[in-house]
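It is worth pausing here to work through a concrete case rather than discussing structure prediction in the abstract. The textbook approach is simple: state the sequence, then state the predicted structure, then interpret. We follow exactly that order.
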Amino acid sequence: MIVDEKTKIDPTSAVEIRPGVWWVGWPDHDAGFSNNPYLIIDGDEVILIDPGSRLEEHWNWVRKKVESIVPIEKITMVIVHHQDPDLCAAIPLIEEIIGINNFEIVTSERTALFIPYYGVKTEVTTVDDGDEIEVGTSGRVLRFLTSPYLHFPGAIVTYDTKEKILFSSDIFGGFSVNWNLYADEYYAEAVKNFAQPYFPDKRHVENFLQKIEKLDIDLICPQHGSIIPKEHIPDVINALRDLEVGVWK
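Step two, the predicted structure:
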């Protein structure tokens, strides 16, 4: 067991990062890379965000953590931010448990074209820039923002208006051998290392940053790397703003 020394959190267990919101991912300390599915429970709504890889060792992490909170059968929605297998290849495994069309898949129109290639049979609900879905009983609204070419043309992010969380997919992800669940003052460098080869053009980065500067964000939850608390959000935004992207060294 490797414990986050600053927060004393055990990453082998599900971690409640905000009321009703859990990190259910897994770290890969050898690769300096983490994978971060998230779970939201609000009333009868159980929402899994980017459920991840279908590799047995990966899915077992996610399934174990989700089931420590709620049965997999209770999942009502899966949000997919883009089409990569490390985000959504596990969806057929969810279908095996819940059944086809017994939960909702939400993603962008472009990503919806690729989801069936993983063997997914459930119908997909598509969203566009600024679309909102009210979920649960608390008045929670999930707002979807397009983030084209970061790093996929149909990429989106999700903003939880209730808890002021930006689920940012690959944006603000990071490579870090000394991984912790929560980002520290050095995490901006990890963001640079991740974004520089993945993001193709500075214009798309600037467009996205203009969108999110209007949001009140308390927490950024990327699909890879560390969760970014409010005190470090300006650092990672500046890191992206000043970064030369589209470079593979």
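Step three, interpretation. The mean pLDDT is 91. The chain has one domain: 15-241.
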